[in-house]
TrEMBL record:
GO cellular component, one term: GATOR1 complex
Taxonomy of the source species: Eukaryota, Sar, Stramenopiles, Oomycota, Saprolegniomycetes
Source organism superkingdom: Eukaryota
Pfam hit, one: IML1
Domain IML1 N-terminal double psi beta-barrel: residue ranges: 20-102
Compositionally biased tracts (Low complexity): 747-760
Protein's recorded name: DEP domain-containing protein
Ranges of compositional bias, category Polar residues: 669-690, 707-724
A GO BP annotation: positive regulation of autophagy
The Vacuolar membrane-associated protein Iml1 N-terminal domain, residue ranges: 113-447
Region Disordered, annotated ranges: 669-724, 747-769
GO molecular function list: GTPase activator activity
Length: 1270
């Protein structure tokens, strides 16, 4: 949208200066680079922070408002000068007369400001402090502003629904926050539709690479973004039960925990384990076997050579089917395995080793049956840990889901609820891009699968209705006489999720207006008004039934290149295939053939064109539809009559028996609709847009103006799973009312009750009712806390849904969760629907560096950083100086009210927690197993993750607030403080005491740096020489090494300059090892809560400079390598390398000393020794989760007791000097841990190091076997 232009002479009732002034311009190098420089002598009445409107009366130009920032004396005789770039932006001529007019701040405030930031970590607390500091500041579009160490660029400004070039930020101004350096995950759904062709002859995957990815990368390069991109391909495969041996049961103990007896490397045979992991097979509610696959092809890539991304995508696409063991539905490839019993050497418990000799081959699932929700939740498990390994150059997180499907999915209701709540709580935005054409129904659409016994909620729901996000919302029934059937587990339920933004690649913006305005682009109206049929390849393939109807031809040729083309050109082949439709092959056991694919639909004497035309006739035939005829059981007539279930009770008068004409296209239907319908409100044009259409609710149909008898419902099963991907098939199941109105029409917000979301009372009904899943009413747009979490911040209405193309602005600059929300429950709802807790905080008596008001501000900052939002009520704009001060922060299901009492100098905290329903009460997780591709072994490994609906572990705000108050002085690993971990690596080759002394002298300089930052508290670190280490080991011969103790130190980071602008007291924590020796790394953790990202970056930069000056190597490492449980990161797969240490030399501890020597020769350095907790170190990694067991007799020797404990739970960890790899040495195995390179340039690649380690293990085992044979 073009910037609003106005006449230069303002008509506002403000005091005009009585003289004109000559305008001059200056560059940014003049003075301090201020936008406006005036001569105080020419303006004696001017004051700092005054707002002036500057105009040239002889010409038109955009409105210019400037603010006086300084009245310092100037050199020269000019009167008024503005920045050269601003003069050009506002089209002002130099050395021309200008009129200066003083205005009030309220005359120049803006409603929305879009800010973007880059190459810096800005928490939402930093952004809030940035806004508070910028209130009253005049801002210009395109200009960068920095305050409190935070840099942000004003991209666009909106005032009174018009784009302006300048304006003043007020307290009510809403910020639209976008990041140019986000952490983005591309989730590419590799369903079988990716191998289909569009009508233009281009394969959907080609459209993904050539149109979407290339276009997006070009826009990234144009805007100079620096995103960190991870590309993940995922898919699902289905298996037949007869592929497996008769005794196979994926739920049996031997197969559920089979990875505990499976490993990699040359030590598998010596440990009597199975080599490699088997399939991670799950069982759905229908009893079908399936396996979910994930492959990370690009991880945390920041460019700049994006051409490598295209090569990787094409290579993965070419090898995907073979790599994931796909097969055709009619093929049968048997899976085989061997099971042998192996007792655990430590616990003597019986165990079973499953060696898969032939892995199963599966049929790729369609997009509708894919693992879309599972992929989102696995990604959210990474985003949940955003406080770990905090990147100081990234801000914001986003998910881009790319699919070739129509955004229709069969999902588990429980998993859908968990995903929705997690997406809302974490504040992660997701863009779903569909590469195909949109269907004739609302999207996205969830089909809740029938519930398994473990998924049955305590509140039942009726089948065959579309529920809104809140089940307490009343839903419009399909007919006034329809009875509510009894709930069954086999019925499908439809749901339209509001948290997914679906766009279609072919509906792209062509005018480019979206780049120039915050308002929604209007060029898509023409595209939405047109009818877009699905491509021919997406229709049901009635020519090739053995291909399971919708199996892509390209994928079929890839999996079976020797087979002939399914679309044979000969007439005989076509007729032969058509006549065999009544005997479907056995391969259809995986997929049910579409309901319309039966012999009565097809006649062998027809040609292919006539056959398809006849099918179209039966779909759109409207003759005699009001007089349904009985259909004999087992037979279907060749002409389809609309039954009572399909005929909507809201049928318009035009649909009479006399209207017996075949409608062959949607355009003909629209033409007949407009010409024969007297009621224009009931017969709107069929379009892809979303106009305000009346609700064809429950009313009796009228024929020729006379009422008719009510239609009795004929409830029949409607299997969307077999017809949702085809708009042609969907029309057969829809009423004519659905054709006459927009398929996605919803009542707009203007037609809703005018009650405010803050004061409105919740609507309560006894039970949910039926709803047409293809015509949503106003209930779907009910304002809730989840909906208002994002939608209130955008200047356009979110109640009007239409089909749009890719949101390039969101893809290029992803949005960050807004700071504020306008939804707050009514007092009676707080009382009835929430539980309340209360506590009061006071500062320590000797706390001189922090005031109670500063504590209040910091408490608000911490909740904003944890994705809470400030509640803005209508009366918040009124400035109230009375005490106490109240802050309301909301996460929807959790609300905090902070009340500051100035007289008592206390902060009262009220915490409201929404009473959960069903599963949310106990927050029981969904445990998910999947297969992750490992590039080192060229195979898939079993992984396991847990999905929690509510944040886990729970935020202990009482402890956090006491930490801010000074009562607690530690930040343990269980807290959600942001942190970064470093290690100081001693140099290799320290052999003498002189070398040790030289190194310790360098290390002492780093300790002096820490001491200068800590202040009065003494930093105590013991420097232990190799002689001291040997002496300590001799005191306990053969005993395993202990972990190093660590201490916390507080560092005050506040400066007088920052305190002059902001009252926040900033500090961070250092976590240091108490002991350091030359044979081990030294750990340095930087942890913070009450500190901005720029301050932490300055501290770490100073630490790096000091280490470089002292000649000490400082390396950043990921935190998941330092915690016991390794599978914190779901896309990094540690490997178990069996290596029975006790059998090498007869003593495990003696063997560990030998292993230590060999690992040092391979370039490793000791990183610490630990005893794992009850959770173990990861799924299938040797030290499993501790389980209750029978008590055993205590050993007589304390040494043996310690040894047994070490065998069961202990490990030593090593880090490689020249490769991003860690190793954990267990009593009978090694655990390979991949790491991040970060900014370190490593000399050795992980695959080369893995080969060296395996060669060393093989030689050691061979030497052991030769010694045993002697």
């Amino acid at each position: 949208m073009k910037a609003s232009r106005r006449q230069s002479s303002s008509q506002r009732s403000t005091k005009r200066l009585q003289a004109s002034y000559k305008l001059t311009v200056h560059g940014p190098e003049y003075g301090t680079g201020e936008e406006l420089v005036i001569n105080p002598e020419a303006f004696p009445d001017a004051k700092v922070h005054d707002l002036w409107e500057i105009s040239q009366p002889d010409r038109e130009h955009p409105r210019l408002v400037m603010q006086i920032r300084s009245l310092a004396p100037i050199r020269g005789k000019f009167q008024i000068s503005i920045l050269k770039d601003i003069a050009a932006q506002f089209q002002l001529d130099t050395y021309h007369e200008v009129v200066v007019q003083k205005i009030e701040p309220t005359d120049a405030t803006v409603d929305f400001i879009e800010l973007s930031f880059k190459d810096q970590f800005m928490s939402r607390a930093d952004i809030w402090r940035y806004k508070v500091a910028m209130i009253g500041r005049c801002m210009y579009a395109g200009k960068m502003y920095e305050t409190l160490g935070t840099r942000a660029q004003a991209e666009m400004l909106l005032a009174n629904e018009k784009t302006v070039l300048c304006g003043v930020m007020a307290s009510h101004t809403k910020l639209i926050l976008r990041s140019k350096s986000s952490r983005i995950f591309w989730l590419i759904h590799m369903s079988r539709e990716m191998w289909d062709f569009d009508d233009d002859g281009e394969m959907y995957f080609e459209k993904l690479v050539n149109r979407l990815v290339r276009g997006l990368v070009a826009k990234w390069q144009e805007t100079s973004v620096s995103h960190s991109v991870t590309v993940l391909m995922f898919s699902r495969s289905y298996y037949d039960k007869d592929q497996f041996p008769n005794d196979y049961d994926p739920t049996a103990y031997a197969f559920v925990n089979e990875c505990q007896s499976q490993g990699f490397g040359p030590g598998v045979a010596a440990a009597h384990m199975a080599h490699g992991h088997g399939p991670s097979i799950n069982v759905d509610c229908d009893g079908r076997y399936y396996e979910d696959f994930y492959n990370v092809i690009v991880q945390d890539y920041t460019g700049p050579d994006w051409s490598q991304l295209f090569k990787v995508l094409k290579h993965e696409f070419a090898t995907y089917a073979q790599q994931h063991r796909w097969r055709l539905p009619q093929d049968t490839q048997l899976a085989t395995y061997d099971v042998r019993r192996v007792d655990d050497p430590v616990t003597n418990a019986p165990a079973f080793a499953v060696q898969w000799t032939e892995l199963p081959h599966g049929v790729p699932a369609r997009a509708i049956d894919g693992n879309m929700l599972e992929a989102i939740n696995v990604t959210l498990n990474i985003f949940d840990k955003h406080y770990m390994d905090r990147d100081l150059y990234r801000a914001g997180q986003g998910i881009v889901m790319i699919t070739a499907g129509c955004s229709v999915y069969k999902v588990r209701q429980r998993l859908a609820q968990i995903t929705k709540q997690r997406m809302m709580d974490t504040g992660v935005g997701m863009d779903m891009i569909s590469l195909t054409k949109p269907p004739m129904h609302p999207v996205p659409l969830f089909i809740w699968q029938k519930k398994c016994a473990k998924d049955l909620p305590t509140v039942t729901s009726s089948p065959l209705f579309c529920v809104a996000e809140d089940q307490s919302i009343p839903l419009a029934p399909l007919s006034p006489t329809m009875q509510t059937p009894a709930p069954t587990m086999d019925a499908s339920t439809y749901n339209v999720p509001h948290w997914i933004n679906v766009s279609f690649l072919d509906f792209d913006c062509t005018c480019g207006a979206a780049k120039k305005s915050l308002l929604r682009c209007a060029c898509l109206d023409a595209q939405n008004e047109a009818f877009h049929a699905l491509p021919a390849s997406r229709m049901f393939d009635i020519i090739a039934p053995e291909a399971c109807m919708v199996f892509p031809v390209a994928l079929r040729k890839l999996l079976a290149p020797s087979l002939p083309s399914p679309r044979a050109p000969t007439r005989g082949a076509i007729l032969s295939q058509l006549t065999r439709l009544h005997t479907p092959p056995a391969s259809w056991s995986i997929e049910k053939a579409p309901a319309h694919m039966h012999e009565w639909w097809l006649q062998p004497h027809m040609s292919t064109r006539d056959l398809l035309a006849e099918y179209d006739d039966t779909v759109f035939d409207l003759s005699d539809m009001m007089a349904p005829k009985p259909v004999p059981y087992g037979k279907r007539p060749s002409i389809v009559y609309m039954d009572t279930l399909q005929a909507s009770p809201g049928l318009p008068p035009m649909m009479t028996p006399s209207f017996a004409r075949r409608i062959t296209s949607m355009h003909n239907l629209q033409r007949h609709n407009s010409g024969a319908t007297p009621n224009r409100s009931a017969a709107t044009s069929l379009s892809r847009s979303f106009p305000k259409t009346p609700d064809f609710g429950p009313r009796s149909p009228l024929m020729d103006g006379s009422p008719t008898e009510s239609l009795q419902p004929n409830v029949s099963s409607f299997d969307l799973g077999t017809s949702m991907d085809s708009s042609m098939s969907m029309m057969k199941h829809r009423s004519m009312t659905d054709f006459l109105v927009s398929p996605r029409s919803r009542i707009s917000s203007s037609e809703l009750p005018s009650s405010s979301p803050i004061t409105s009372k919740p609507v309560r009904v006894s039970a949910p009712t039926h709803m047409n899943p293809f015509q949503l009413n106003e209930c779907s747009t009910r304002l809730t806390s989840n909906r208002r979490r994002w939608s209130h911040i955008f200047p356009w209405s979110q109640s009007e849904h239409w089909i749009s193309g890719p949101n390039w602005k969101s893809l290029v600059n992803p949005a960050v969760l807004p700071l504020t929300t306008d939804y707050y429950p009514a007092p009676n709802e707080l009382h009835t629907s929430y539980t309340e807790s209360f506590y009061t905080l006071m500062l320590l008596e000797n706390s001189s560096s922090l005031s109670t008001h500063q504590l209040l501000v910091e408490m608000v900052c911490q909740r904003l950083s944890c994705d809470y939002q400030l509640v803005t009520l209508p009366d918040d704009d009124v400035k109230i100086d009375a005490v106490p001060t109240v802050y309301r922060l909301s996460m929807g299901h959790r609300i905090h009210v902070l009340n500051y009492d100035e007289q008592q100098q206390t902060v009262d905290v009220k915490c409201y927690f929404k009473r959960p329903k069903t599963y949310a009460a106990s927050n029981e997780p969904v445990v998910y197993q999947y297969s992750l591709y490992n590039g080192l072994t060229k195979s898939f490994q079993k992984e396991q993750q847990a999905f929690y609906e509510l944040p886990y572990p729970h935020d202990n705000w009482n402890t956090t607030d006491n930490l801010l108050s000074g009562y607690v002085d530690t930040m343990p690993d269980s807290s959600k403080c942001r942190r970064i971990r470093f290690v100081i690596v001693p140099p290799i080759g320290i052999a003498t005491t002189v070398d040790e002394a030289a190194y310790f002298a360098k290390f002492q300089k780093v300790l002096d740096f820490f001491q200068s930052k800590v202040g009065k508290v003494v930093v105590n670190v013991t420097l232990r020489t190799s002689t001291d280490a040997l002496k300590a080991a001799s005191n306990e011969p053969g005993a395993p090494k202990k972990s190093t103790a660590r201490d916390y130190y507080r560092v005050n980071c506040s400066t007088s300059a920052r305190l002059g602008v902001d009252c926040r007291s900033e500090w961070l924590m250092l976590l240091l090892d108490q002991v350091h020796d030359v044979g081990s790394t030294y750990h340095v953790d930087v942890r913070w809560l009450a500190c901005s990202g720029s301050v932490v970056e300055d501290f770490i930069s100073g630490l790096r400079r000091k280490c470089k000056q002292a000649g000490v190597e400082l390396r950043r490492i990921p935190e998941y390598t330092q915690v016991h449980y390794l599978q914190v990161h779901p896309f990094l797969s540690p490997m178990l390398l069996p290596f029975p240490l006790a059998s090498l030399r007869g003593c495990a501890l003696r063997a560990m000393d030998e292993i230590h020597t060999q690992l040092v020769l391979l370039g490793f350095i000791r990183d610490g020794a630990h005893v794992a907790g009850s959770a173990g170190i990861g799924y299938g990694l040797g030290i499993e989760q501790r389980k209750p067991r029978q008590p055993v007799l205590r050993k007589s020797s304390s040494y043996v007791s310690k040894l047994d404990q070490w065998k069961e739970r202990g490990y030593e960890q090593y880090m490689h000097r020249s490769a991003p790899v860690f190793l954990r040495v267990l009593h009978d195995a090694l655990v390979w841990i991949p790491s991040y390179a970060y900014e370190t340039a490593f000399e050795l690649t992980p695959d080369v190091l893995f080969t060296k380690v395996c060669q060393w293990m093989l030689k050691s085992l061979e030497r052991k076997m030769r010694s045993d044979s002697v």
